[in-house]
Records
---
Amino acid sequence: MENQDRKRLLIIDAALKRFAHYGLAKTTMTEIAKDIAFSKALLYYYFPDKLSLYVSVIEHLMHQISRDLVKSVEKTSSAAEGILMLVQKRQAFIQKYYKLIEYTKMMGPELPDELQDKFTRARAFELKIITGLLNKGNASGEFSVADLNFTTEIFVEAISGIHFNILNRSKIIYPDKEQFKLIFLKEKRFTEIFLAGLKQTNRS
Amino acid sequence: MENQDRKRLLIIDAALKRFAHYGLAKTTMTEIAKDIAFSKALLYYYFPDKLSLYVSVIEHLMHQISRDLVKSVEKTSSAAEGILMLVQKRQAFIQKYYKLIEYTKMMGPELPDELQDKFTRARAFELKIITGLLNKGNASGEFSVADLNFTTEIFVEAISGIHFNILNRSKIIYPDKEQFKLIFLKEKRFTEIFLAGLKQTNRS
C-alpha cells in the first residue's frame, strides 16, 4: 500500500472509532488528529472537512460489511439460512454503529447527495443478495417465489417497518439494549414466518 | 334523536365532506356553516374551533369504520379471509380519507393529546380484531401461532413498513392512484405470504 493510502486509512479508522463511540456532532477533527498523532494540517490535507471524512468512513464501513456479509452467506447451506444470516448481520451492524448512523437518520430526506448515494448503493446491494437467495431457494425447491424482485422489496420494506415502528412509538433516538433485543426478536420471528410462507406453493 | 344531537351530526357530516375533499387547512368554518345553512354563531356554539370539530369528525369516522369492519369480518368464513378483508378495508379507508388524515401525518409525534388518544384506540381496536382472528385460526387448525399478541404486532408493524417505505422513498405527501395501487398490491401479497407462513407448524 502506498504511504498516502496508509495515512488515509489511519485517519478513517480513527474517525470511525470516534464517530461510533460519540457520534458525529460530539467528535472534533482535533481529537481525531490527536488519536493518531497527526497534525491538524495533515488531517485537513486528506479531508477538507468533517462531513467529507464522515462520508469516507461510511463508504469504508459499507465495503467491510458487504465483504463480511457475502462470506457469511456463502457458508450457509440453504436459502432460508442465508436470509436469516443476513438479517442477523444487519442487526449486529445497526446495533454496533448506531451512533454513527444516527446522524443520517436525523437528516432524513435532506441527506447530502454524496451520502444518499452510499445508502442507495448499500440498499441495492442488500436487495441483490436477497433476490439471489430467493432465486437459489427456487432452484433447490426450497421456495416457490413467483416474482423475485417484488418479493424482495416486500420483505425489506416490511422488516424496516418493524424497526421504525418500535423506535417511533417510544420516541427514542438511541434505543437501549432491551429495545434492541425486542426489535431483533421481532425481526427474527418475522423472517421465520415470511420464509415459511414462501415455502407454500400454489399461492394466488 | 334529540334536536341538539341531530344538529351536531349535521355539522360533523358537512365537515367530513369538506375535510375529505380539501383537507383541514383549506376548509373554513364559514364554508361548513354555509353548506348546511347554519349561522356561524350556531356552528361555534357546537364546536369552539376547527380543531375540536376535526377531532369529532375523526371520532365519528372511526366509529363508522369499526362497525363496518366488524360486520365485514364476521361474514368471512376463515381466519385468513378475515385478515385479508381487514387489510382491504384498511386500504380503502386510507385511500378514501387520505386528505383528511394527511394533517395528522404531518403533525407526527406533536399530535394534540385528544387526537393521539383516538388513534391509539383505533390501533388497539385493530390489533384486537387481528389477535381474535389468529386465535380463531388456531382453534380451527388453520394456523399454528404460538404468541398471539406478539405475532399481531409483527404483522401490523411490517405492513405499515410497506406503506411508509413507498411514500417516503418518493417523498410524496399525497400519493396518486398508481402509487396506491402498488402499495395495495404489495400489502395484499405480503399478507398472503405471512398467512401462509402461519400455517406451517413446528416453527422454531
---
Amino acid sequence: MKTIIKNGIVVTSGSIFKADILIEGESITSISSHITQESADKIINAEGQYVFPGGIDVHTHLEWPLMDTETADDFVSGTKAAAVGGITSIINFTKPEIGASLIPTQEEWIEKGKKSVIDYGLHAIINHYSDRVLEELPILAETYGVGSIKLFMAYKGEMMVNDLEMYKIMKKAGELGIITNVHAENGDIIDEMIAQALAEGKTDPIYHGYTRPTIMEAEATGRALAIAEAANAPIYIVHVSCAEALEKVVEAKKRGVQAFAETCPQYLVLDISYLDQPNFEGGKYVCSPPLREKWNQDALWNGLQTGIISVAGSDHCPFRYEGQKTMGKDDFSKIPNGLPGLEDIFSILYHFGVHKGRISLNKFVEIISTNPAKLFGLTKKGDISIGKDADIVVFDPNRSRVITAECQYQNVDYNAYEGMKVQGVITNVLSRGEVIVKDGQFIGDLARGKYLHRSRVQNQ
Amino acid sequence: MKTIIKNGIVVTSGSIFKADILIEGESITSISSHITQESADKIINAEGQYVFPGGIDVHTHLEWPLMDTETADDFVSGTKAAAVGGITSIINFTKPEIGASLIPTQEEWIEKGKKSVIDYGLHAIINHYSDRVLEELPILAETYGVGSIKLFMAYKGEMMVNDLEMYKIMKKAGELGIITNVHAENGDIIDEMIAQALAEGKTDPIYHGYTRPTIMEAEATGRALAIAEAANAPIYIVHVSCAEALEKVVEAKKRGVQAFAETCPQYLVLDISYLDQPNFEGGKYVCSPPLREKWNQDALWNGLQTGIISVAGSDHCPFRYEGQKTMGKDDFSKIPNGLPGLEDIFSILYHFGVHKGRISLNKFVEIISTNPAKLFGLTKKGDISIGKDADIVVFDPNRSRVITAECQYQNVDYNAYEGMKVQGVITNVLSRGEVIVKDGQFIGDLARGKYLHRSRVQNQ
Amino acid sequence: MKTIIKNGIVVTSGSIFKADILIEGESITSISSHITQESADKIINAEGQYVFPGGIDVHTHLEWPLMDTETADDFVSGTKAAAVGGITSIINFTKPEIGASLIPTQEEWIEKGKKSVIDYGLHAIINHYSDRVLEELPILAETYGVGSIKLFMAYKGEMMVNDLEMYKIMKKAGELGIITNVHAENGDIIDEMIAQALAEGKTDPIYHGYTRPTIMEAEATGRALAIAEAANAPIYIVHVSCAEALEKVVEAKKRGVQAFAETCPQYLVLDISYLDQPNFEGGKYVCSPPLREKWNQDALWNGLQTGIISVAGSDHCPFRYEGQKTMGKDDFSKIPNGLPGLEDIFSILYHFGVHKGRISLNKFVEIISTNPAKLFGLTKKGDISIGKDADIVVFDPNRSRVITAECQYQNVDYNAYEGMKVQGVITNVLSRGEVIVKDGQFIGDLARGKYLHRSRVQNQ
Amino acid sequence: MKTIIKNGIVVTSGSIFKADILIEGESITSISSHITQESADKIINAEGQYVFPGGIDVHTHLEWPLMDTETADDFVSGTKAAAVGGITSIINFTKPEIGASLIPTQEEWIEKGKKSVIDYGLHAIINHYSDRVLEELPILAETYGVGSIKLFMAYKGEMMVNDLEMYKIMKKAGELGIITNVHAENGDIIDEMIAQALAEGKTDPIYHGYTRPTIMEAEATGRALAIAEAANAPIYIVHVSCAEALEKVVEAKKRGVQAFAETCPQYLVLDISYLDQPNFEGGKYVCSPPLREKWNQDALWNGLQTGIISVAGSDHCPFRYEGQKTMGKDDFSKIPNGLPGLEDIFSILYHFGVHKGRISLNKFVEIISTNPAKLFGLTKKGDISIGKDADIVVFDPNRSRVITAECQYQNVDYNAYEGMKVQGVITNVLSRGEVIVKDGQFIGDLARGKYLHRSRVQNQ
Ligand SMILES: [Zn+2]
Ligand SMILES: [Zn+2]
Ligand SMILES: [Zn+2]
Ligand SMILES: [Zn+2]
Ligand SMILES: [Zn+2]
Ligand SMILES: [Zn+2]
Ligand SMILES: [Zn+2]
Ligand SMILES: [Zn+2]
C-alpha cells in the first residue's frame, strides 16, 4: 500500500515546508518536492493545509479504576476520540493492585490496550516499594519497553508512596535510564484539609479547589525535584497547574537536575471560577490539581513558549456527569477526579496557542508531538521524517469548528470546553499509513493499535 | 546537477534517521529511505556518518575595523575557515561610521561580502540615534532583508548608544518585527575601571578580566531586557558569559519578554586563568566580555541544555598575536578585543557538548543551526527538509582530530583551542548543493557565497 | 530645667517597659522605675500612654524648588507640621543650582533651615559631576557633618546624573563612609514615554502612572545597586514603591551589597486608582514613583516586617492643589510631583502597621526612629536611652482621630489621607527636652531647631 | 541588695551610650548618666568596657539522651559554662519518651533544670502525634509558659514526625501563638544514604557530611515552611547551615510566612574540611546538619547582617571525644551528633562578627539577646532597660584570649574552636543582679537558676 500526501505544508518542530509525502506500508519513505502519483494507491490532497506529525498524548487514564468507579472511556472509545482529535499515540497509565507485581499488571494492561485504534504505550504506576519492584524495573524496561514509571505523592492508601520509597525507586530508575512521572501534591496534608472542610460542612465543588492550595503543589514539586536530584534520576512533573509549582521546575533546571514538566489544556484555558458554579455544575470541573486562579495561565503559556514546560498532556481522566460526577453531589471529596480532554487537546493547544499568537507552529509540534516522543522513547514517532511511522494529521487552518459534547467520541455527557469555537479542522488522520479519520469521522478498523515498546529517555 | 548523499544518519533538531538525500541544483528536493543513483551526477557515501544541516554562525566580525586595526580575516579567509569548520552561513556585523546613514553602509558591506565562499547575511550595527535611523529601519528590513540590528552598551565614543537611544530604536524595531542584538556591558563604568587600573600601573591582560566584572555584564543585561520589555521588542543578548547575566535572561523570560540569549565556545570551554599567563600569552585570550571563573561554564552548558540559551555563536573577531594583540603589550586596553572561533565552533560544541554528554545530538543541531535560522529569518536554512538550501555537513563521529593553528584556514597565528583533541571529523561540506569542503580542504570556488535576504523574527 | 515623664510605657526597638524618664536640659539623663518628682520643673503624666522616641523623617523637601514652583511648606510650616505629627528630626534635601559648588549650597540651606522648630539635617543633592564635587565630599562630611548625599536617575536636565557620574561619586562616597540616597527611575526612558503619551493626547493624571511603569523603577534600582556594588559603597534606595523594585533590593542584599531601602506611607496605603479620578482629582496624587497597583502594598508591608526595608520616610513634597497641582490640569507632566505626608507619616504607620497587626510596636520604632538614626548618623537620636536628646512622643493608643486637611499644619489645601480614622493620638511631643506640642497644638518657640551635624554611616 | 555598674558603654540593639546602671534586687531599676554610689552595696567599674544584655542561647541540649548515651554536660556544668561564656539564659530541649505525655516530661525537665546556675526555659519536643498532644499544648503554654515546641524531620524512630503530624501540630500551635522549632533535614532519605554508604564500606566521619547533602536540608526547610504557611503558624528553622536552605527562608519571608531562622557558630566559622581529618579527628566535628563547604559561611553572615537570620544559637550538644565520639570509630553513623558550643558562642560571634567587621555591635546584641528574647517570649530578658532582669555581661574589648579545652567549663575533652584567639574578655557576668562570673571564674551559687515561664511569640 502506497499513499501520497500531496502539496501540504509540512510542519515539524524544526521547519515548515511544502512537500509531498510518500508512505509505504506503515512508514514514511520519502518526502519530496514532487512525488509522482503513478504508483500510489491513494492520494490525499493537502493543498493549503498543514501536515503535522500525529499528536502524542502521554497522559491518559483509559479504563482506569478510581474511587470505586472507572473512567468512562475504555481503550475503544478513548482511542477513537484521540484519533478524531489528532492524537495518534497515547501512553496510558496502568493501575496495579496495591503491592501487586508489576509484570502481570503490565501484561494485563497490554491486553486491555489491544482494543485500541491507535498505538498505545503504558507508564507503569508504582504504588508501593518492595525489593521485587526494583527487580522488576529492568524487566519492564527491557522486556516490555517501559522506560517510564509513575509515582504519586497524593492519594494516600491508594497510590501514594513516601519520600523514601520515591528515592529508592528513582535511584534505581535513574540507573536504568527510566524516567519517573510524578503527581506532585502533598497528599497527607491535603487529605487533612479536606477532612477539615467537610467537618465544617463545606461540601461544594469549590472546596475541592480550596483544599488543594498551590503551596501544597509547589511544596511537593520542589520535594520531588530534590529527591530526583539526590537520586540522580530524570524526572517528569505531570500536570503543573500554577506559577508557584512551575518556579520549582525552573530552580531545579538551573541546578542541573534532569527535570521536565508537563501542563494540560485545562490549566491553560480554564480557571478556578469554573468550580464555583451553582447546581453542582462545578462538579464537572473537578480534577487534581484543581483549576487555579486565572493569572496562572500566563505563566504556563510562557513556560511552554520558553521551553521550561516541555509537553502538553491531556490528563484525560473522564467521568460522566450523571452517575459519576454526581456521586459527590453532597461531598466534593466523593467526586471522581478528572476531566475529559483527549479529544480536544490538539485543537485547544492549536487554537489558544498558535492561533492566538502565544506559540509558533514549530513550538506547537514540539509540545504535542516531538518532545513527548523524545522524552518517552518513541523513536518512530514525533516527527515527519524518513522511517518514522506515518502518523500524520492533515489540518485545515482556514476552517473552524465549535467544540460540543454532542458530537464527541468521548464517552461522556459533557465537554469541559463546551461551546468554544476553535480555529482549524482536522481533515485526515493517518496512523501507520492508514487513514483512520476522515472529516471528523473515525473510519479505521477496531483493535488496530499496537503496543509501543519504547526505548529509554535520552538527554533532551 | 543532482547530488545524492547516501546512507547517512540524518540529524535534525527533531529526530535522527537513516535516509538518502537528493539535491537538485541548490536545494534539497527529496529525502527518502532509498534514492536510486541512476540519474545522479554525484554520490556522497555517508555510511556511518552524521548528516547535519550546515552550521549557522550569527556572530562574526570579518573585515571589521576595531581599535585602529581590522580583524585578521576578511570575507575570503573567514568564510573558507567557516566552511572547513562546518559553518555554511554567517551573519556578519556591519560597521558604519558614527552617524552614517545605514543604507550606504549596508550596500558597502553587501559588496564586501561578495568575496565570501558561503552565504552571508548582515546585522546592521546602529551606533547612534537620529530620525533618519528610524526611517531607514523599514528600508533595511524590506529592501535589504535585514531583520536584525545590533546595539552596543559598551565601547563609548565608538559604538555605544545610551538608554534612550536604545529604547527609541528598539521600539521602532519591535513594531517592524526586527530583533535587536545587544552587547551588554556597562561601558561607562568599565571605561572608568580601566582608567583606574592603568593609573595604578596594572597593564597586564589579566586586568582586562578584572576591569569588566560580571556584575557590569549582569547589570547591562538586565537593563537591556527591561528596555526591551518597555519597548515591547524582541531582544537577543549576544555572548552571555556568566551565570549572573544568564539569571537576568531567565527572569526576563519569566516576565514574558521575547528574550533570547547566545553564548560562545570560549565561555563554555576557556576561563579567566587563560588571561593570567606569563609573557603576554594572556593577550591572546582578550575578548569582551572577558573569560570568567570556571564555575560559570556549568551554568552556560545548563542554559543550552534547558533552552534558556538558544544559540551558540562564535563571536569570531580574530586578531593576529604578532602585530595586533601585541599592540597592547604594555597596556591591556590597547589589545584588540576578540578571539578567532569561526573555524572551531562546530567542533568545540560537538565535542564538549555531544561527545561529553552535556547535550543531545538534536540539541546540538538546534543550537548551531535550527535556532539561529529561526531567530534571524533564514527560512531556507537550519534544517534538512524539502526546499531548504542544501547546506549540509557530513561528519564522521568515529574519527578525531587535534585543533591546531598550524592547519587552520583562519588568518591568525594562534588558535584559542590549540592542542585540544576533539571527537569527530567533517568529511564533506555542501553549500547550496556544492561540495565545497572535502576531507578538511576547501575545494569550492571563490566568491560563490550569496547575500542572505532575511525575513523577520518569528515567535520562536 | 528638669522634666519627668512619669508612668509611661516606654517603647524602643528592643523592648517595652514601664519607666519614668528624667530629662535634664536637652538630654535624657535617667530612666528609672521611679523618679522622685521633687526636683522636677515639669511633670508629664504618661500613665497608660506609649512613650516613643521622636520620629525621624529622613526624606523631606521643604522650601524645595521644583518645576518652576516651590514646595508649599517652608521650614516653618513644615517643621511645625512634623512636630505635631510626632516627627522631631528631619533630614531635608538641599537643591543646588546645576553645576554649583556644594559648599555654598550647604551654607545656604543650613541658613534656610534655621527657621525650623525641630532639628534638621541636610542631605546634599549632587546633580552633576566634576572634580570639585569629589573634593567637596570630605569637607561636607567633616566640616558640615553631611554623611549622606543624593543622586537622581531621573529628572534629566534638572537633577539626573548618568551611570559614570554615579559610579565616580559613589566610589568616593564609599571611601568616606558617606551613604548615597538614590532616586531610582530610568529618567531617559520615562521622559520619552511621557512625550509619547502627550503626543497622543493623553494628558490626564492617570498617564503619570502609566508613563512611569514598575519595570523602569526596577531597572534603575537594579542598576543603582550594581553600581554601588562595583563602587563598594553603601546605598539607600529612597521611596521603593513596588514589589518588582523591592526584589532588586533583596537580590543585592543576598550578594552582600550594603543596600538599604525606604518606602513611604503613600505606597503602603494608597494605590494607582487614586490617580484615576474625575475632575482632576487625580492630580492631588501625582508623585514619583507613582502610586502602584494595590497588590504591591502587601509586598512593602512584608518588606518592613522582615527588615528588607529599613525605613519609612514621608517624601514630603507638598504642593497646593489650587495654583500648584492645577498647573498640570491640561498636561499631567506639568503637575508638580509630590505629596504632603510629614504630618501624617507617624500616624499612618502606627495605624496601618501596628494597629492593624502588620508590624510590632518595636518594629514601628525601628522603622520610624532607630533605623533612620543609625543609617544617617544621628547618634543622639533614635532611641530612648541615656545621653540621647530628649526627643520624645507621648502617644495615647486608646484614643483615635480623623485625618483632615482642615486641621492640619501642613500648608496645603488637601490631605492625601483625608477622612481616614486612625487609632492613637499624640498628646505630647518633646524636642531636646522642651514640650513643643501639646494635645495637637504646636506650643514651642519658632526657630528653635538646630542643624544636625551627623556622623558617617555605620554597618547596620 | 543594690549594685551599680559604673561608667560602662551600654550596648543595646538600638543604641550605644555611656551610663551607670542601678540594679535593685534582681532587676534593673535605673539607667542614668550618673548614679551616686552612696547607697550601693556593690560597685562594678566598667570604665572602657561594653555592658551587654546577657546572652540568650535558645538551642541547648543539656542532659540530653541521644544514641544510647547522653550529652556530656548536665544542667550544672552546662550552665556554668554558659555563664562563664556570657550566656545568662538558655532554652533547653526536653526529651520525652516516644508517645509520652508532654506534661510529666515537662515536669521532669523542670526538675532536672533546677540544678542550673542561670535561668532556663524549655522547648517541648514533640515526637509523635495524638489527640492528647493537641490537648496538652494549651496547658503547656498557659500552665508551664512553654510557648515553643520542636519538631524533627529527621531521626526516624526516635524523634521524627511526618508531614501530616507536623501540619496538625503546627495548626494547633499557630492558633495558640506557639512557635515551632524545626530541625529540617529529610531524615528518610538521609537514613537511606547512610545505609548505602556503610554498605559500601564508607565509615569515616567525612561520610557523615556526604550523606546529609545540602539539597536534603533545603528540601526539608522548604517543606517545613510550606507546611507552616498552610497551617498559618509561626516557624523557627533551627541551625540553618547552608545557602541553599537559607534561600528557602528568604522565599518564605517574601510570601509573608511568619518564618524565622537560626544559625550556629560552627556553620559560621568551621567547614566540611574539619570532618576530613586523619585518625578519627573528624569525629569531633560530627553534628547535624553537617559542616558545609566554606563558601556557605558568607551567605550565613550575610543572613545575620541583613536580618534574614534572626538568631544565633549554639546547638550545644556536647559529647566527649574519648568514649562518646569514639563509639563511631568504625562507623560514622554511631558517632553521637553534636558539638559543644555554649561556652564559646558569645565570643565567637563577637570576634568573627563584630571584631571582623561583619556585623555591628547593635546587631550582635540583637542576634545573641534581643531577638531570642522577643521570639521566645522572654519578656524580662534581652535588653538593658528598666524592669528587665539584671542579666548583664561586662566585656573588655581591648583584651583578648585563646579558646582552649584545657580551661573550659564544658565537660568535654576537646573544644571545636581550639586555639583560636578571640578579641574581648568577659570580666563580669550578672544574673538577676548577682555577679556569678568574675574574670573567667564562676563564683555564683549552685542551683540558683530559675525556670523561665514564657509568654507567646509576638510578631517580631
Ligand atoms: Zn495526577
Ligand atoms: Zn493523571
Ligand atoms: Zn560584543
Ligand atoms: Zn561580537
Ligand atoms: Zn524622589
Ligand atoms: Zn523625594
Ligand atoms: Zn537539630
Ligand atoms: Zn539541636
---
Amino acid sequence: MTHHANARPLGGGIIGLGLAGGIMAPIIAEHPGLTLAGAAETDASTRATFTADTGLPAYAEVCELLANPTVDFVYVATPHQCHRAHAVLAAEHGKHIIVEKPMALSLADCDAMIDAANANGVQLVIGHTHSFDPAIAAIRALIDSGRTGAPVSLAMWNFTDFLYRPRRPEELDSARGGGILYNQLPHQLDVARLIVNSPIRSVRAATTRLDPTRPTEGGCSAFVDFENGACATVVYSGYDRFDSDELHGWIAEGGQLKTARHGHARRMLSKIAGPEGEAAQRRVQFGYGAAGAHGNPPHQPHFGLMLVSCERADIRQSADGLYIYDDAGADEQPIIRSSWRPGRGDVLEELRRAVVDGVPPLHDGTFGRGTVEAAIAIAQSAAARREITITELAAA
Amino acid sequence: MTHHANARPLGGGIIGLGLAGGIMAPIIAEHPGLTLAGAAETDASTRATFTADTGLPAYAEVCELLANPTVDFVYVATPHQCHRAHAVLAAEHGKHIIVEKPMALSLADCDAMIDAANANGVQLVIGHTHSFDPAIAAIRALIDSGRTGAPVSLAMWNFTDFLYRPRRPEELDSARGGGILYNQLPHQLDVARLIVNSPIRSVRAATTRLDPTRPTEGGCSAFVDFENGACATVVYSGYDRFDSDELHGWIAEGGQLKTARHGHARRMLSKIAGPEGEAAQRRVQFGYGAAGAHGNPPHQPHFGLMLVSCERADIRQSADGLYIYDDAGADEQPIIRSSWRPGRGDVLEELRRAVVDGVPPLHDGTFGRGTVEAAIAIAQSAAARREITITELAAA
C-alpha cells in the first residue's frame, strides 16, 4: 500500500495509552506530515480523558480503531505479550504499523509479525528506541561520509533509575518480559547495530538481580561481537545508584535537564504501598496526559555514555551535537533540528517516509527481530556463563 | 630474610634508569622508611647524571649493584625480556625485589621468578600498576567494611595517548611485549583483580591495530569473568583521540592537571624523524631526570574511568577521594594522604612492610603471574575470536 505525497496527512491511531502511547499521542499530533486519528485503550477513564483532550474517538476494542478509515497506521504500545496479536490484526486491516520495543518476546512472534506485514503489503517499523535519536543518525552519516573510517569498537554505559520507577507487576517478572533485558538493552543494542551496520555474531554477558523486592534483571555487562569484526561492550544498570547523566551535564535521557538525581526514584517509591499503589502511581506519573511527557527538549536525547571508536576517529555525543576526536584534535559538530520531536518524532518520520516516499525503513521487522535475538542470546549467555553464538541460538 | 624495625632504612637499588626507574629513583629517596643506594644502567651518560645528582654509585653491570651491601632491595625496571634474569639474579644475591609490570612475557618466566624468590627467602612485589593507588586501597577497604556488599560488576574505560608517546622499536612490536596488552592492560587487570578478590575464570576480548606505522595492539575491549561470579568490562584505547581524562576533570593519570590534550602526543611525534630520533626523544622526555617526573601531584592518581557496582552501592573515584552512590544518594569520601608519593610510593611501602613488618604483599609473584596469564588469555581470545578459559590456557 503506498500513499500519495499530496494526499491528506497520514492518520495515526494509538493502541494502548500507557507510558509509550501516552508520550507518542501528542507527538503524532505535532508532526507536520501526520495527524492523530484516535486510540484504543482498555481503561474507560483514560479513554474519556483522551477524547476530552483531543476530540478524537477512543475505543475499548482494538478492532474498532482498526475499522476507522481515518487510521492509516497504528502505534502498538500494549504490553509486550500483546504485540504479536495487535500487529498481525493491524496488518490484516491494511494498516501500517509501528511496534513499541521490544518487538516481541520470542522469535516465532517476530516472524509472525514480519510475515503478516509482508502478506498485507504494509510497512512495519520497530521503535521507539534511542537508535532513532538524531545523534545516532548523525554518527551514522559521519561514518558513511568516509571521514572517520569504519567503526571498530563501541563502549556503552548507561546507569539509570529504571528499576525503581513505579511498575506494573509483569514489568518486574523476567518470564513476562520484565526487567532490563527486553526494556532497556534494546536501546543500546539497536544503537550499536545501527552504527556498526553488521549482524551480531555472538555475545558474552552477565546480568545482575540485586534487589529481591524487584526480582528481575536490573544490570547487565555484555561483550557483543559483530560479523564484520567490530565489537561493543554494553553496560547497563537500573539500580538508581550512580547515574551516568552526571557525566553528560545532567541532561536526562529525553534531552531535558535533570533535577531529580541520585536515589530520587528509590526515595519516591518507598512512599508508595504495595503493587496496587505502585501501578496507580505509574499511571499518574507516566500514563496518558502525565505532566512532563510533552514539550520539545532543550538538548538532544541520548541513552548514556557511548564512545564510537572508528579506524581514524573517536565519536561521542555532546549535549547538542557530536564530539569528533581525530588526528587534528577535538571538534564539535552541531545537530540540525528537524521540525518534529527528536527521537520519537523520528520514529514517526521513518514510517511516514516509508509509506509516502517509498524509502525502506532502517528499523524494519527484520532489524527488530535481530535485537530480540540478541536479548535472548544475552539472557542465555548469562545463564550458561559462556559465549553464545547467534547461529547456535537459531539452531536450538 | 627479615629486617629489624629499628635497623637503618632499607636501601634500594634501581636496575635500569629508563622511564620507570627514572621516576622511581627520587620516590625511593623521598620515602621515610627507605634510602636510595645506587643504580645499574647500561648508558654511561645516564650513569654520570645519576651519580652527579645523588652522589651514589651507578654501575654498568647489574652484578656490581647486587654486590653492594647497602642495597637491600632492587627495583627491576629493565626491558620486559630481562625481568626474569635480573629478578632471579637479585634473589640469588639475597636482595628483595620489586619487578616493574609486566612481571614477564611468559608463565614459565613468572614461575622461575617466584621459585627463585621462595628459594632465597626474599620478598617479591610486582608493580607499579595503578592497583597500588590509594583510591584502589580505599575501594577495597570500603568493600571490606561491609557497607557496600560484594562487587558484582566493574566497568572500566581508559582512553589515552599511549601509542604516540616516543617509543623504542620493541615497544611497538607485540612479539617482544610491545603494545597495550602487556603495558597498559595490566593496570586495569590488577585493579579489577584487587577489587574483586577472586581469580579470573575466562575472558572474551577483541583488540585493534589501527595504525600500520605503530604495528602493535593499541586498543582492547574485554569481558572478564571471575570465579566468584563477578565480571568486568575493560576498554582501553591508546590512539590519542578521545581522552577519558576529559570526564575526570582533566586530571592526568599521575594526579597532575593535564594541559596537553587531544592529539598533542601525535602532533609532537610528527615532528620527530625516524626510530632513532624517537628513541632519543623518549630518553629526553621520559628518561632519568626528565622534567615533570618529580613532585607530589595535586590530586590522586587514577587509570581512567571505573564504576564498581556492588550489591548495595556503586563506587567511583573522584579527584581526591571516592564517590559512593547508595540507597541514601551520593556521598564523597576523601582519601587521607600518606607521607609518601601516592601509587609508586605505595609500591615501595608494600615491600617495606613485607620486609620490616612481615605483612605479606598483596602484589606478590603469584598475583603478578595471574595478570600475565590474563593478558595472554586476552591475546588468545582476540586471535581465536572466542572465549578463553584460564584452565584451557594452563592445559595448553
